[in-house]
Structure prediction request, 334 residues.
Amino acid sequence: MPGPPIIKAEGLRKVYAGTEALSDLTFEVPEGEVFGFIGANGAGKTTTLRILAGLARPSGGWAEVNGVDVATQRDRLHELVGYMPDFFGVYDSMTAAEYLAFYASCYRLPKHLTGRVVTDLLELVHLGPKRDAQVNTLSRGMKQRLCLARALVHDPKVLLLDEPASGLDPRARGEMRELVQALREMGKTIVLSSHILPELVEMCTSYGIIHDGRMVAQGPAGAILGQAGPRRARARVQGDLDASERLAQGIAGVSAVRRAGPDTLEIDLAPEAIEAGEPGDGQPRGDVPNAAALLGALVAAGIPVVEFREDDGGLEELFLQLTAPTAEPVEQAG
Prediction:
């Protein structure tokens, strides 16, 4: 069950040189969630995160993090929030350890604790062997992880990650996903923005979709994804396709089976047939098909599956629907 909201925003506005970047933006993030903040470039994602981090003042409305007003209580806010921007600067002449120690001093971490904190953070982000490497010798993925460690140096309750997987190769994106999951297990609330929607499906427990400075949908992952219609999987099978199709139709929770090729079945899963669960625990999330569970059911039904993949188009389809020129905001999903 979602916890109480740790982030609240009501009617946020932000105007830059006469241009309105945010317009009446209202949303909440429950404590302990990984909140996927989705929007096209220019939709207002970075502006919102900068306001929540205390780096920009709203032109109207209000927001708070753990009861701390982002506009009037900035000193307290900076103790609560760790912010990782999309475009970040690093000091190339420093080693990875020196870089984190410098930021620890900025947060007035006691010197007798700094060494242990730096070591622990480097291990957490899998950079222990690189502690004495010059920052300018690190790959982009390593620099991303180092900047995530920088955002954690004061042990904040809330992490704001702006496009954390931007520009990363598949291996580095996988490492970032693992880190986000580990941080959630440590009790952090995480807001991460991205336009790489399949990545968000694998990481997030709730979503907010922003369009032209307004929140057009928000809510738990299952409820949000359910608005896009049934989730699908594709299975390539061997042998008698007619028999495989009949068997697949008899699996509990399968709402429809179609032929998508000479040896391929496209399978819809009924939302009401899926139990609630949490990402990473091996259980389905809301009405999101769990690939492992569905594959197991196909194999148990005697279907000779030689290739299987989950179709992650649901979130992308919903995003396109809600951000179309004629789209109207929808009520919060719950």
Observations:
- The chain is about 35% helix and 30% strand.
- The longest strand covers residues 5-16.
- The chain has a mean pLDDT of 84.
